[in-house]
Design brief:
about 75% helix; single chain; 2 domains; mainly alpha; Four Helix Bundle (Hemerythrin (Met), subunit A)
Length: about 240
């Protein structure tokens, strides 16, 4: 009996991990927005797994800071606060600047990923596909992080990127927000690829500081608007 139980756990865990990765990718691609309800029964049917496995995946996403679960109320995609944004950007500054410092010993393959990601963002801007601009911008910054050649750091940033996408979604107009960063991504890419690491780091820090401030303002405006709407509904 114990043996069967252990085998069941062994099978369920990879299934939950796979489901977690798929849902995290949906968030990163902007296909699951903040506040979206997540029902284990619906997810189990979508992924062809048991409801227990779906619950395990939701628990993993809760640990990732991407989902909130309330007893007897269910789960939903997390809505970030200004404090969450500050925490995310503190981590970004530490990881991305450290990655640039390691670019001198990076392989041609890793450096090429930076060029490809920057070019892809530019192509999506030309096509006016703002959802993909946001996704490719995150891919660009992940390509910088991959200069660390650390699987642990890359996995951590993959979750951080999903959290960032939730932050982007709270901006009043994501297209206006995204277009301002693509040219700066290109400048940072060119500096890294030409070995001008100090300049790349300086531009990246300015970029992250400005991005953080804009997103915090956007989140506060969204929170204020929702508060006003809730107040109006209660008054009526």
């Amino acid at each position: 009996m114990n043996s069967n139980s252990n085998n069941s756990s062994t099978v369920a865990l990879p299934a939950a991990e796979t489901m977690r990765a798929a849902l995290r990718q949906k968030i990163t691609e902007g296909r699951l927005s903040p506040g979206s309800r997540l029902f284990d029964k619906v997810l189990a049917e979508e992924f062809g797994v048991s409801r227990n496995t779906a619950r395990d995946a939701l628990r993993l996403l809760t640990t990732d800071g991407l989902v909130v679960s309330i007893p007897n109320s269910g789960s939903s995609v997390r809505i970030l606060t200004p404090a969450d944004i500050r925490d995310i950007y503190s981590a970004r500054r530490l990881i991305e600047t450290g990655a640039i410092a390691q670019s001198s010993t990076a392989s041609d393959e890793l450096l090429q990923k930076i060029e490809v990601a920057a070019t892809q963002s530019e192509q999506y801007v030309e096509a006016g596909d703002w959802n993909k601009v946001g996704t490719s911008s995150l891919s660009f910054h992940r390509s910088i992080v991959q200069l660390t050649r650390s699987q642990l750091v890359d996995e951590f940033f993959t979750t951080l990127a999903a959290q960032l996408r939730l932050a982007f979604a709270l901006m009043p107009d994501e297209s206006v927000f995204q277009v301002s960063w693509v040219g700066r991504d290109r400048n940072i890419a060119n500096l890294i690829l030409s070995g001008r690491r100090e300049e790349a780091t300086s531009q990246l820090i300015d970029y992250l500081n400005e991005s953080e401030a804009q997103i915090i303002d956007g989140v506060r405006n969204t929170m204020h608007s929702r508060s006003v709407m809730d107040g109006a509904e209660k008054a009526s």
